[in-house]
Design a protein that fits this description.
The chain is mainly beta. The chain has a single domain (3-39, 61-318), classed as TolB, C-terminal domain (Neuraminidase, 6 Propeller). Helices cover 5% and strands 47% of the residues. The protein has a five-stranded mixed beta sheet with strand order 1-21-20-19-18, with no helix packed on it. Strands 2-29-28-27-26 form a five-stranded mixed beta sheet, with no helix packed on it. A hairpin with a 2-residue loop joins strand 12 and strand 13 (149-157). It is globular and about 55 Å long. The termini are far apart.
């Protein structure tokens, strides 16, 4: 069952359509959500360069960058872990072992080795570019009754999706099918799972994004709810913070230099801010020129504390000014490019994947 592919297909249909027209220790918080004005937008001119992939129909995922400036990302439709070297302007495409066309999250360690989540193949992968060697860490199979046949039990992958490093270099990841967080100890290879509900559930919460703050707390989103969760690795305690009002499924999540939590929503042009000290949410609506709302997906916070997002329905990247609460849009040259993920290099250039046009782009602001 391709849970991830279903999510991506839904995301594409939703955004393009609108453009055209806990554990037992868990606690839940539902607090007021002030909203910023909807007209907080300006445009900026930047210099773009775009690099076409060798093949079309690649289904590019979120990029990561290594110390040499090379970009790493998954190509789901071609079953590749891909690398682009800006110095030679060449792509390298690598087939992972037992790949199942579902590399999603990719992160690069301090030693320039590459970690990735292979959702349908059900493992966390580790690639060593210098030796071209892979090491895989298999995840448990999830067993659940078949909703279409009461006499049948389905065997599903845990569904690893997004991943990040903690302060010790260990890998934390979301498991969309098993409704859990996972932690891989990179020194022992041991994997620990943290169920996110009091009773076992499957494909109910669909945890999506994950990040670790400066205090070592693990934060995550649930793509079927309007929850942001916080896991304390020392105690296993989970606290849920709930945005009041309508259901706002959340996707990417980051922690900024001040400890503020930011997240994107894929069914509205909403950037969400959570102050962990007060539990108060503030939402900011990225302006839309299309009828209805589109959605925000990619999200990053820079070393300077800047907040960047991708706005697929507007075919743009946007920087959010945290002082004026304005979104500064940068229109991408290629139409219908569907900007997906983004990352910043050492020269403060923004690299991004174009899932709709099979290109890797760079913005020199």
């Amino acid at each position: 069952m391709r849970k991830l592919n279903l999510v991506i297909i839904f995301l594409f249909l939703l955004l393009f359509t609108t453009a055209c027209e806990s554990t037992n220790n868990s606690a839940s918080y539902s607090l007021s959500s002030p909203k910023a004005p909807d007209n907080a937008q300006s445009s900026a001119i930047g210099s773009f360069q775009e690099y076409a992939l060798p093949q079309t129909g690649s289904s590019m995922m979120r990029p990561a960058i290594d110390s040499k400036g090379r970009l790493w990302f998954g190509e789901m439709s071609h079953n590749f872990l891909a690398m682009f070297d800006p110095h030679t302007q060449t792509f390298t495409q690598i087939t992972p072992p037992h790949g199942a066309y579902s590399i999603m999250g990719v992160v690069v360690a301090l030693d320039d080795t590459v970690w990735f989540a292979e959702q349908d193949a059900n493992y966390i992968g580790h690639y060593f570019p210098t030796t071209k060697h892979f090491q895989i860490y298999s995840l448990p199979i999830v067993h659940t009754p078949d909703p279409g046949d009461a006499h049948k039990i389905l065997a599903l992958p845990s569904g690893p999706n997004d991943l990040t490093f903690d302060l010790h270099g260990n890998i934390w990841f979301t498991e969309m099918n098993s409704d859990s967080l996972g932690m891989l100890n990179i020194y022992t290879g041991a994997i620990k799972q943290y169920p996110l509900s009091k009773t076992k559930s499957v494909q109910t919460l669909s945890p999506y994004g994950v990040t670790v703050d400066a205090h070592g707390m693990v934060w995550f989103t649930e793509s079927t709810t309007n929850h942001i969760g916080r896991l304390d690795p020392k105690t296993g305690t989970i606290k849920l913070f709930t945005i009041a009002g309508a259901n706002v499924p959340l996707m990417e999540i980051v922690s900024d230099t001040n400890g503020i939590i930011w997240a994107t929503s894929f069914n509205s042009n909403m950037l969400v801010r959570l102050d962990p000290k007060t539990g108060v949410f503030t939402t900011y609506s990225a302006p839309s020129t299309s009828q209805g709302n589109g959605g925000l997906y990619g999200l990053m916070v820079t070393a300077r504390g800047e907040i960047w997002v991708t706005v697929p329905a507007e075919n743009a990247l946007a920087r959010f000014d945290t002082e004026t609460h304005h979104f500064i849009y940068h229109a991408i040259p290629t139409a219908a490019s569907f900007p997906f993920g983004l990352v910043m290099d050492a020269q403060h250039n923004v690299w991004f994947t174009e899932a709709g046009s099979d290109k890797l782009g760079i913005l020199h602001e």
